[in-house]
Amino acid sequence: MSRRVFDKVYEGKRLDDKDALELFRSDDLFGIGRAAAFVSERLHGKKVFYTRNRHINPTNLCINRCKFCAFSRSVGQDGAYAHTIGEIIDKLAATASTFNELHIVGGLHPDWPFSYYLDLISEIKLAFPHVQIKAFTAVEIDHFTKISGRGLEATLAALKERGLDMLPGGGAEIFNENVRSRLCPEKIPASRWLEVHEAAHNIGIKTNATMLYGHIETYDDRIAHLMALRALQDRTRGFQAFIPLSYQPVESIAACSPSGIDDLKTIAISRLILDNFPHIKAYWIMLGEKICQIALYFGATDIDGTVIEEKIAHSAGASSAEALTAQQMIHLIKRAQKEPVERNATYEEVNATCA
Ligand code: V47
Ligand code: SF4
């Protein structure tokens, strides 16, 4: 590939669609990685962020049943579950001293009222006031507007009032509507996903963004996805991290997961295109610990958290561990010659207490 695109990066110029396609088609993995590392070091030096968090999935019952999702179940199906708020509080109480961020996402339950979600947030905040809550994908928020009869901003504001701190980036999948209709025909369209995040940003809720890649999409689809996120971020500045989600194979969509090379290239190119995003997150659960560690040389500056209990990727057969201790995360970062920094959900640095 020509030096032209790298020159633009080193001169601090914004890349366009054509540059992005040249990068995706290139086999100069190290050149791309070096350019992305240049950008991430300019932003954060040697710092790599991690968090002590815990995942909670209140239910796997879901009316959408996306084709790639091995986690969801229909009513009456083997393995279906729906936790009461009391069960969730008990689960959390058992490990409460080990996390300061909660990541809560689940299926679209066919019957739960909006009050379940409002009470869930309030009761968690009451029982664990030190914990920040990152909860509900844009897909869930849209569902809440339907079950509550409220508008988007009113729905988000009600959750914020109860203690919601931020939204995770799930549900974005791939924005191209043809691919989306094959992967997840029942899911909200891309335009609605973007609208939910814009509304959250407008009322002061920060969010993350994701992209599910490595299945049936093309490089052009990935580029259009990244460009749509960059355009929204130009307007709102409300995104904190972008998380490329490496597809975990399920039979009905595509048999193979992306290669390690594709994982690293996608992380690096995301860093180069999303010049207005503070962080690119290498999500070790879907990448595996070793690719995640190498990604720190390809533009990633966040490795997510301890997680404790992961159901979505592991339902699809992810071979990574289900949890890492804070000590293991620190070790992973230090062995890459980087500086581990513990953060909370909203990216404030916190003093590590369990290292
Ligand atoms: O929206 C489902 C994806 C997402 C598969 O914001 C799959 O900090 C790969 O969004 N292969 C949920 N991916 C996970 C997510 C997330 C994870 C960690 C941190 C954050 C954050 C967000 O998982 C879903 C869907 O896109 N998913 N099935 C699969 N087979
Ligand atoms: Fe439901 Fe989310 Fe799974 Fe789709 S990805 S079936 S919306 S839980």
Task: Give an overview of the whole structure.
By secondary structure, the chain is α/β, with parallel strands linked by helices. It has a single domain, classed as TIM Barrel (Alpha-Beta Barrel), CATH 3.20.20.70. The strands form 2 sheets. Strands 2-3-4-5-6-7-8 form a 7-stranded parallel beta sheet. It has a 3-stranded parallel beta sheet with strand order 9-1-10, covered by helices on one side. α2 crosses α10, α6 crosses α9 and α9 packs parallel to α10. The longest helix has 18 residues. It is globular. The structure holds ligand V47 and iron/sulfur cluster (SF4).
Can you give keywords for this protein?
15 helices, three-stranded parallel β-sheet, globular, TIM Barrel, binds iron/sulfur cluster, 355 residues, seven-stranded parallel β-sheet, 10 strands, binds ligand V47, alpha/beta
CATH homologous superfamily placement: Aldolase class I
Radius of gyration: 19 Å
CATH level 3 topology? TIM Barrel
- The overall average pLDDT, rounded, is 95
Topology:
Layout: H1 3-10, H2 17-25, H3 29-44, E1 47-51, E2 53-56, H4 85-93, E3 101-104, H5 114-127, E4 132-135, H6 138-148, H7 152-162, E5 164-167, H8 177-183, H9 190-202, E6 206-213, H10 219-236, E7 239-246, H11 260-273, E8 279-280, H12 284-287, H13 289-295, E9 302-305, H14 312-315, H15 326-334, E10 339-342
Bound molecules: ligand V47 and iron/sulfur cluster (SF4).
